[in-house]
Design a protein that fits this description.
The chain is mainly beta and about 625 residues long. The protein is about 5% helix and about 55% strand.
Length: about 625
C-alpha cells in the first residue's frame, strides 16, 4: 500500500478552518491523506493535489505522460507511437481500431475511492477553434463502508484544418463497498464512451509543395483541400464490471493464514463504424455501394472465480478459473470473385490463471500467468519479476514475460464497402509469440533506467503493400521470421536552487531482415524549469521550456478507414526540435496551466504521417486548470 510522500499530505483546508469537517463514519478531521484512490489490485494511493513537473507532463488530452507519442494536429485525434510495447499480459485478441483507443478507458484504468468528505475535481483545457475539454468528477462516501463516484470527460474541437472535427465523451460511474468487519468487499463500475473523429485523409498531392514550403499564403491551414470531404469514424463502447471478494478465513494477530474467494465479472459491448455519404474511390479504391457504412461489433463476456491464499511463510498465492464468451463481426457475408468473407468469429472457452507474491525483507518476488483452454483461441502468458530494495533510495528489479496470443480481430476478419478492405485470416495467421527480458533501476539520487530486450515471432502488422492508380493497398501481414527489439531509457533530474533540468532519453534498435517495425533510434525530452513559492507561500509557481526531439525514421502512416497505423518505407520524417513553453501555478486547491505548445501543421499532413519534414513551425496558446474542491 502506497500512502504517498509527506509533500502530498498537505491539508486542503489550511487557512480556512470553517471548512474543516469530520466525515460520517470517520474518527478524525479530514486531511488530504484520508482521500484515497484504489484499484482492483488493492493498491491504494493518496490523492495528490500538488504541482510538479510530472503534473505538467500529464496535463494533456490523455491526462497521462505522453512521452513517446506524437499528437496529430487537433486535440482528440490519435497519436503516432514512437516506441513499441512488446509485453503482453493478455490471452485473447483485442478489438481493432487501435488508433481510437488512446482515450478509451479500459477496466484497468478505472479508479475507486474512499473520501472522508465529498470531493469534486474539474479539469479544463482549451482546444482548437471553437472547442474545449472538460473532465468533471465527483466522489462521496455515504458511510465509511460505501463510496460512489461519477465522472464525465467531454471534448469538442473543430481543428485548424477542414474536416478535422473531434468529439468525444467518457462517462464513468464507480462504487466501492466493504462491510464493517472488512470481510466482504466489492468494487464495480459502469463506463460508456463514444469517440468520434472527422477524417480528412491529409492533403491533396498538389498541395503538398505549398504545405512543405512554408509559404505565408498558406499559414491559414483551413485553405488546404483534403483527400476526404465527408468521412467520419466513431468508436462506441459500454462496460459493466464488478469485482467482489469474501474472506473465508480472515488474517488477524493470532492467525498467520487467510483464505478469500474472489469473483470478477464484466460484459463489454463495442462497435466501430466508418461512414461516408459518397465513396472516395480515388483514395480507397472501388466500392460495392454509393455510400459507405462499415460497422463491426464485439460482445465480450468474462467471469473469473479465484481463490486467494496467504501464509506468512509461503506468501500469497492466487488461483482462478475463468469463462469467456466472444462474438465479433458483421451482419452479412461478403462474396468476392475468388473468396467468401464470413461475417463472424465466435468462441466460448474456459481458462485458468494464477498469481504469486512473496516479500522477504528487501526482496519481493511476483508472478502472474494465464492460459486459455481452447483449440481455436490458443493463448497464454507468463510474467515473473524479482525486486530488490538495496537501501532507502535504490531499487533494482528484473523480469521475464513470455506470451502467445492470436492477433487482433481486425487482422483476422474485416469487411468493408470498399473492395480492397475485405479479408479473412483466422485459419492462416499464427499466434504472435513474444519473449521479453526487462531490467529497471530506480533511484532519485542517481537516475532511473529501463532496459527491455524482446524477441518477437510472427509479428503482425498492417502494411502498405503497393499503390495502384494512386490508391494505397493496405493489408494485414505476418512477419514469418523473428525480430529483436531493444529499448534503453534513462531519466534523471538535476536541481540547483529553484532551477531544475529534467531529462528523459530513450534509445531503440530493431534487428530484422525486413523493415516491418519502424521506430526512431533516439527520443529525448528535456525540460528546464524554475519553481518557487511566492506571496508568503500562498502561490506555487512553475515555469520553463520543454525540448522534444526524435531522429528521422520511416514513421507509420495512418489509415482513416481502419483507424489503424500501417508500416511504410517510402518517407522519412523527424529530426526536428519541438519546444513547449509553460507557466503553471497553484493557489490553494486550484492548479493553473498556461502553455505555448509547439505543434506542427503536418500532423495531419499527407497520409497522416503526423510529423513535419520542413522548417515551418506553429505555436498555439493553451490554457487549462485543475480545481479540487473538498466540501
Amino acid at each position: 500500500m502506497n500512502k504517498g510522500n509527506v509533500a502530498n499530505r498537505e491539508n486542503p483546508f489550511e487557512n480556512d478552518s470553517s471548512n474543516v469537517k469530520k466525515a460520517k463514519g470517520f474518527d478524525k478531521l479530514a486531511t488530504i491523506d484520508m482521500y484515497l484512490q484504489l484499484n482492483t489490485q488493492v493498491d491504494t494511493v493518496v490523492v495528490d493535489t500538488t504541482i510538479s513537473i510530472k503534473k505538467e507532463y500529464k496535463f494533456n488530452y490523455l491526462q497521462k505522460d505522453n512521452f513517446g507519442l506524437m499528437p496529430f494536429a487537433n486535440i482528440g485525434q490519435t497519436y503516432n507511437s514512437l516506441s513499441f510495447n512488446s509485453s503482453e499480459n493478455e490471452t485473447k485478441p483485442l478489438f481493432g481500431a487501435r488508433a481510437r483507443h488512446f482515450n478509451y478507458f479500459e477496466k484497468e484504468d478505472i479508479k475507486y475511492y474512499e473520501v472522508p468528505t465529498p470531493w469534486t475535481r474539474l479539469t479544463y483545457k482549451t482546444a482548437f477553434e471553437q472547442g474545449q475539454m472538460l473532465d468533471a468528477f465527483f466522489a462521496v462516501n455515504l458511510s465509511k463502508q460505501f463510496n460512489f463516484s461519477i465522472a464525465y470527460k467531454g471534448l469538442r474541437s473543430l481543428g485548424n484544418y477542414q474536416n478535422a472535427l473531434t468529439s468525444s465523451g467518457n462517462f464513468r460511474f464507480t462504487s466501492n463497498y466493504n462491510t464493517k468487519n472488512n470481510r466482504y468487499r466489492a468494487k464495480g463500475h459502469i463506463v460508456m464512451q463514444d469517440l468520434l473523429n472527422q477524417e480528412n485523409g491529409g492533403l491533396l498531392e498538389e498541395d503538398i509543395e505549398n504545405f512543405t514550403s512554408g509559404d505565408e499564403d498558406f499559414i491559414d491551414r483551413s485553405v488546404f483541400d483534403m483527400n476526404l470531404e465527408n468521412a467520419e469514424n466513431i468508436l462506441v463502447g459500454k462496460r459493466f464490471f464488478i469485482n467482489h471478494s469474501y474472506d473465508i478465513v480472515k488474517k488477524n494477530d493470532s492467525m498467520n493464514n487467510s483464505l478469500s474467494i474472489i469473483n470478477e465479472t464484466f460484459f463489454e459491448d463495442k462497435y466501430y463504424q466508418f461512414y461516408e455519404d459518397s465513396p472516395s474511390t480515388s483514395y480507397f479504391g472501388n466500392s460495392f455501394t454509393n455510400s459507405i457504412n462499415d460497422k463491426v461489433t464485439l460482445e465480450h463476456f468474462n467471469t473469473n472465480l479465484k481463490l486467494d491464499y496467504y501464509n506468512n511463510i509461503l506468501g500469497k498465492l492466487q488461483f482462478g478459473i475463468f469463462y469467456s464468451d466472444v462474438n465479433y463481426g458483421y451482419n452479412s457475408v461478403v462474396l468476392l470473385t475468388d473468396e467468401i468473407i464470413p461475417n463472424r468469429i465466435k468462441a466460448n472457452f474456459f481458462g485458468a490463471n494464477a498469481k504469486y507474491s512473496k516479500t522477504l525483507n528487501s526482496i519481493k518476488l511476483e508472478g502472474d500467468a494465464s492460459i486459455n483452454f481452447s483449440d481455436e483461441f490458443v493463448g497464454s502468458y507468463f510474467d515473473v519479476q524479482l525486486s530488490l530494495k538495496l537501501n532507502e533510495d535504490i531499487e533494482i528489479n528484473g523480469g521475464i514475460n513470455i506470451s502467445s496470443r492470436i492477433p487482433n480481430y481486425n487482422y483476422l476478419l474485416y469487411q468493408s464497402d470498399y473492395i480492397n478492405y475485405n479479408w479473412y485470416n483466422f485459419s492462416s495467421f499464427r499466434n504472435t509469440n513474444t519473449q521479453q527480458l526487462r531490467f529497471n533501476l530506480i533511484s532519485e539520487k542517481f537516475f532511473n533506467a529501463k532496459l527491455d530486450i524482446s524477441n518477437i515471432e510472427n509479428y503482425t502488422y498492417f502494411n502498405l503493400d503497393s499503390t495502384i492508380d494512386k490508391n494505397r493497398i493496405i493489408k494485414p501481414k505476418q512477419y514469418n521470421a523473428s525480430l529483436q527489439y531493444l529499448i534503453l531509457k534513462v531519466q534523471k533530474e538535476f536541481r540547483l536552487g529553484n532551477f531544475a533540468l529534467d531529462n528523459t532519453i530513450m534509445y531503440q534498435n530493431v534487428v530484422s531482415e525486413e523493415d516491418v517495425l519502424n521506430v526512431p533510434n533516439f527520443i529525448t525530452r528535456n525540460t528546464l524549469y524554475y519553481s518557487n513559492q511566492l506571496f508568503k507561500k500562498a502561490m506555487t509557481l512553475q515555469t520553463g521550456v520543454t525540448f522534444n526531439y526524435f531522429t528521422k525514421y520511416n514513421m507509420n502512416g495512418y489509415d482513416p478507414l481502419l483507424a489503424e497505423f500501417y508500416t511504410q518505407n517510402e518517407t522519412e520524417l523527424g529530426g526536428f526540435p519541438r519546444l513547449d513553453f509553460f507557466i503553471n501555478a497553484k493557489i490553494r486547491q486550484t492548479r493553473i496551466f498556461l502553455k505555448a505548445e509547439h505543434f506542427n501543421s503536418s500532423f495531419t499532413g499527407y497520409d497522416y504521417f503526423s510529423a513535419p519534414n520542413h522548417p515551418y513551425r506553429d505555436f498555439t496558446i493553451r490554457f487549462g486548470l485543475v480545481w479540487d474542491f473538498f466540501l
